[in-house]
């Protein structure tokens, strides 16, 4: 009985390791590799974000955390195959207090401006609209400490493609 308990404990423990540990290691490895292969000055900042989107209308990140008072480099990738007219994606960072659904509703009508309302004061920064296989990189100063919403403003996408941008 005692041995059985011991065996069960080992199984549970190794399951925990294979689930939790693996992903952490992978992330660290990818970050290190980016640092080594790129030589520009921006590498020194820890605010280097790679946001991946696809044909399934999804971002790989639901939460982005950056340090205040530093430059942020955000790379938006679209790993799908569909054209931007059908499955276009962007990254739009909203000012605090902006209602995400109201913004997305207005943005959906701004087709001629890649779904960014003209003369808006509710957008801190945004990428261009990209389609499958494309990438866009933007650089900006991290806004003041706090939590912000981000979304893709292509019509109908914000329901799945949104998240929190947290400045610490
Ligand atoms: Cu989208």
From TrEMBL:
Keywords: Copper, Electron transport, Metal-binding, Transport
Keyword Transport: yes
Record Gene3D superfamilies: Cupredoxins - blue copper proteins
Alphabetical list of Pfam families matching this protein: Copper-bind (PF00127)
Residue ranges occupied by any Blue (type 1) copper domain in the UniProt entry: 52-168
Cross-referenced InterPro entries: Azurin (IPR014068), BlueCu_1 (IPR000923), BlueCu_1_BS (IPR028871), Cu-binding_ET (IPR050845), Cupredoxin (IPR008972)
PROSITE patterns with a match to the protein in the record: COPPER_BLUE, PROKAR_LIPOPROTEIN
Claim: Metal-binding is one of the keywords in the record: yes
Taxonomic superkingdom: Bacteria
MF GO annotations: copper ion binding; electron transfer activity
Protein name: Azurin
Organism in which the protein naturally occurs: Leptobacterium flavescens
Gene name of this polypeptide: azu
């Amino acid at each position: 009985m005692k041995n059985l308990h011991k065996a069960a404990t080992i199984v549970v423990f190794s399951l925990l390791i294979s689930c939790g540990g693996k992903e952490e290691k992978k992330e660290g490895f990818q970050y290190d590799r980016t640092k080594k292969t790129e030589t520009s000055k921006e590498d020194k900042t820890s605010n280097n974000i790679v946001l991946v989107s696809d044909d399934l209308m999804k971002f790989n990140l639901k939460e982005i955390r950056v340090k205040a008072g530093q430059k942020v480099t955000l790379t938006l990738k679209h790993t799908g195959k569909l054209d931007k007219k059908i499955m276009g994606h962007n990254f739009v960072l909203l000012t605090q207090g902006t209602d995400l659904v109201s913004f997305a509703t207005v943005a959906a009508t701004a087709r001629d401006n890649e779904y960014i309302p003209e003369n808006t004061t509710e957008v801190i920064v945004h990428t261009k609209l990209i389609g499958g296989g494309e990438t866009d990189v933007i650089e900006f100063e991290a806004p003041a400490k706090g939590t912000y919403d981000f979304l893709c403003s292509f019509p109908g996408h914000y329901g799945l493609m949104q998240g929190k941008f947290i400045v610490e």
